[in-house]
Specification:
Elements lengths: L17 E4 L6 E4 L2 H11 L6 H14 L5 H15 L2 E4 L3
Helix pairs in contact: 1-2, 2-3
């Protein structure tokens, strides 16, 4: 049962995939959904501070609650990656 106001955050229908090139055990991390944005930010991120990182976490939560489009959270992730020195490979449509 899905609650009103909470989107299916596992879905990737309107989400252009991207690849994060990170250091550590998992060098390449494919991100195709809000769930994977959340996992990247909470589990795999190299640092838990920074203005763009905090904004990306908040934006991801807003997108999961269906307050904003998933693409806004994707853009916030890209800005946080730039702040953290993480390379991003985007898929062009």
């Amino acid at each position: 049962m899905q609650r009103v106001g909470v989107m299916d955050w596992h879905r990737s229908d309107d989400f252009a995939p991207l690849m994060l090139v990170m250091s550590g055990q998992e060098k390449h991390r494919l991100v195709t959904s809000l769930r994977e944005i959340a996992e990247a930010l909470i589990v795999a991120w190299p640092t838990y501070d920074g203005e763009e990182y905090i904004a990306a976490v908040k934006t991801c939560l807003d997108a999961i609650q269906d307050k904003i489009p998933a693409q806004v959270a994707r853009a916030a992730l890209i800005r946080a990656a730039a702040e953290a020195g993480i390379s991003v490979i985007e898929v062009a449509h």
